[in-house]
Amino acid sequence: MTEPPTDCARCPRLAEFRRVNREAKPDWHNAPVSAFGGCDAALLIVGLAPGVSGANRTGRPFTGDFAGDLLYRILAAHGFTRGQYDRSADDGLTLARCRITNAVRCVPPQNRPTATEINTCRSFLRYEIESLPNLRVILALGTIAHRSVVTALDARQAVYPFAHGALHSPPGGFTLADSYHCSRYNTNTGRITVEMFDAVVARVRELIDGD
């Protein structure tokens, strides 16, 4: 299956959380969030999960919250977007040789999916990777995204440990690049700065342009 159905019930806790959110905010998306971008992408960005008032509200990955504001600004600076990002799924923004998804497609309580939920949703991530014939780089935002990608590739975590700015060569003929997640919490605590994130995406651009 390419994308989870809108009423996906694979993860009971997440399905119940969606139901509660739907009752409170009936005009929000409140469903699994599909990947964004074309299947001709050379870059696949993998985040953790939809934010409760971001992608869970708008229905587009990294759209409507701080993490998206930063991500799309940096992607635009390096030529991975066309149009203007405006925190809305209908802002007309498109991606250029880039696709964005999450390790977990549904919003989790406290932004913390369980190990079982991550494992359950991995089949969609595996399909994403396998369905991109021009894939050159996977950019994993955070440890959970990194580990889910490595597992989806049937590779060993010990061989490809997460580290901000690291570049790995896992099975598949592409590069796995790591970055701390561009969340407000990480930027507020100084775990990642705009300059640090920009440097990772700049390196990704170099890798793609060098092919």
Describe this structure in words.
This protein has 7 helices and 8 strands; from the N terminus they run H-E-E-H-H-E-E-E-H-E-H-E-E-H-H. With 211 residues, it is an alpha/beta fold. The chain has a single domain (12-209), classed as Uracil-DNA glycosylase-like domain (Uracil-DNA Glycosylase, subunit E), CATH 3.40.470.10. The strands form 2 sheets. The chain has a 6-stranded mixed β-sheet, with helices on both faces. A hairpin with a 6-residue loop joins strand 7 and strand 8. The mean pLDDT is 96.
Question: What attributes does this structure have?
Answer:
Uracil-DNA Glycosylase, subunit E; two-stranded antiparallel ribbon; 211 residues; six-stranded mixed β-sheet; alpha/beta; 8 strands; 13% strand
Side-by-side strand order of the widest sheet: 1-5-2-6-8-7
Using the alpha-carbon principal axes, give the shape: globular
CATH architecture: 3-Layer(aba) Sandwich
The H-and-E topology, N to C, reads as HEEHHEEEHEHEEHH
**Structural class by secondary-structure content:** alpha/beta
What's the end-to-end separation, in Å? 31 Å
Q: Calculate Rg over CA atoms.
A: 16 Å
User: Main β-sheet, in a few words?
Assistant: 6 strands, mixed
Strands, count: 8
What's the tally of helices? 7
